[in-house]
Amino acid sequence: MATKTEKLATFAWKGSDRRGQVVVGELQAANANLVKAELRRQGIVPKRVTKKSSLFGGRSKKITAADIAIFMRQLATMLDSGVPLVQAFEIIGRGHENPSMADLVLTIKADVEGGSALAEALGKHPQYFDDLVCNLVNAGEQAGVLDTLLDKIATYKEKTESIKKKIKKALFYPTAVLVVAFVVTAILLIWVVPQFESLFAGFGADLPAFTRMVLNLSDAFRAQGHLIFGGIAAVVVAFVQAKKRSRAFNEALDKLSLKLPVIGDILNKAAYARYARTLATMFAAGVPLVEALDSVAGATGNSVYEKAVLGMREQVASGQQLQTSMKQTGLFPNMMVQMVAIGEEAGSLDSMLSKVADFYEEEVDNAIDSLSSLIEPFIMVLLAVLVGGLVIAMYLPIFQLGQVV
């Protein structure tokens, strides 16, 4: 009901059948005219055809990387079980909880039904399926092992998403606690401390230096609070915009992040794991090394490694061994280079890279666990210093008054 370049939508319709009875229903098509044509073919006279906002009439949700990873695993499992490709798309699309994802799956299904290869159909949605995925799917279709390649893609997606989630979790927890600590401190300074200030005014004695400092800070927050919070908001917005628009800013940020204590070590190991896992997956699929490195560069997740891998690609294309080009970047650890060297000499590069990826994925897990163990006591001390410091500052004059009495 749709050409291979048109996206399917869902239309609610109302009409009358051959007996003149009113009937209603829903149909998927590229446009309302095709719905009317299909209804007439079924002997129904259409009276009203309206497009629904999403496949299930619900609110559209953003398609996440996790949705794509789950989709690839479902597709791989169904093909491995002998379910035909088009039927697999129908089952996945109809059963998906995310209307946007369901629309995407059924659009790809329509393209495949229209004669497009799966790699071509996926390539029409580059925001969800990158060159790496499309190249692997194409290799699987050409070699007649699509189910095997989809399984490799699903495994690759699951492992890379797992690493991303763990890193985000490790960074989110301390950031969230620091934000909460700042908000609580601001509330105390703006609304609680002034109550003590009016109490201290009747003491008729000099306040301790620490108490005066906190009172002055409270006055500053009340007088310039809009500027302080506005400045923080402006910095956050400027940071987000610069990250979206400025390549130079992102490159500088990537370089800085790799040099941070503890965090930098985790990000480096995550880059090793993504590099090894991606290259192993593509090499095992029969993608030539030079072509594979082009896709691997973007999968490392860091512009420093992306530039290095693109440089390696040029060196490998000119005849240099992969192990040598890796060593010359100065980014990869000696153990990793030696494993690649053994893999190249033994003709088992994909196997060695998979072992390297497993090793560094486990290293990332251990490093994140260690980071969590280090951060928790630090955060507790920080909160104790902030809140406890304010409490002590407010009660110091009362303690001194008690000693005088």
Structure characterization notes:
This protein has 405 residues and is mainly alpha-helical. The chain is built from 15 helices and 3 strands. The protein has a 3-stranded antiparallel sheet, covered by helices on one side. The longest helix is centred in the C-terminal third of the chain and has 56 residues, at 349-404. The termini are far apart. Mean pLDDT is 85; it is low at 1-5 and 54-59.
Structure keywords:
405 residues; mainly alpha; 3-stranded antiparallel beta sheet; 15 helices; 74% helix; flat; disordered N terminus
Mean model confidence by pLDDT: 85
Tally the helices: 15
Helix content: over 70%
What is the 3D shape? Answer: flat
End-to-end distance, in Å? 92 Å
Low-confidence runs (pLDDT<50, min 5 residues)?
1-5, 54-59
The quaternary state of the protein chains shown equals single chain
**SSE-based structural type:** mainly alpha
How would a crystallographer describe the biggest sheet? 3 strands, antiparallel
Percent range for β-strand residues: 5-15%
Give the H and E element order: EEHEHHHHHHHHHHHHHH
Rg, nearest Å: 30 Å
For the largest sheet, list the strands in their spatial order. 2-1-3
Number of beta strands = 3
Concise structural overview:
The chain has 405 residues and is mainly alpha-helical.
Topology of this protein?
Elements: E1 9-16, E2 22-29, H1 32-41, E3 45-51, H2 65-80, H3 85-95, H4 99-113, H5 118-123, H6 131-143, H7 146-200, H8 209-245, H9 247-259, H10 263-284, H11 289-299, H12 303-317, H13 322-329, H14 334-346, H15 349-404
Antiparallel strand pairs: 1-2, 1-3
Helix pairs in contact: 2-3, 2-7, 3-4, 6-7, 7-8, 7-10, 7-15, 8-15, 9-10, 10-11, 10-15, 11-12, 12-13, 13-14, 14-15
